[in-house]
Amino acid sequence: MFTPAWLTYLVAVLHVRIDRARTAPSRGASAVEWVIITAIIAGVALGLATLIKTLVTQKQAEIQTNFGGGGGGTGGKP
C-alpha cells in the first residue's frame, strides 16, 4: 500500500507533539491555571452584571417616581 510522503510526515510530527505533551512536567499546572483564570473572569463578569442590573433597577424606580408612575393618561377621562 502506498502512503503519501506528506501523510507520513504529518503522522511523525503528531507523534512527536503528543509525546512531548504527555511527558511535559507542568502539563497539569497549565490546566489549573486556565481554570483559575476562567473562574476569576467569570466572577468579575457576574459582579458587573449584578452591578449593572442594580443600577438599572434604581434608575427605573427613580424615573417612575419622577413621572408619577408613568402612563401619561387622564385615567379614562377625555
Topology:
Elements: H1 5-23, H2 27-66
Features:
membrane, elongated, 78 residues, transmembrane, transmembrane helix, DUF2970 domain-containing protein, mainly alpha, 2 helices
Radius of gyration: 30 Å
Could you give the order of the helices and strands? Answer: HH
Mean pLDDT over all positions:
82
**How does the helix and strand content classify structurally?**
mainly alpha
- Spans of at least 5 consecutive residues whose pLDDT stays below 50 are none
Q: Let me know the number of strands.
A: 0
What fraction of the residues are assigned to beta strands by DSSP? Answer: under 5%
Shape: elongated
In summary, what is this structure?
This protein has a domain at 29-63. Helices cover 76% and strands 0% of the residues.
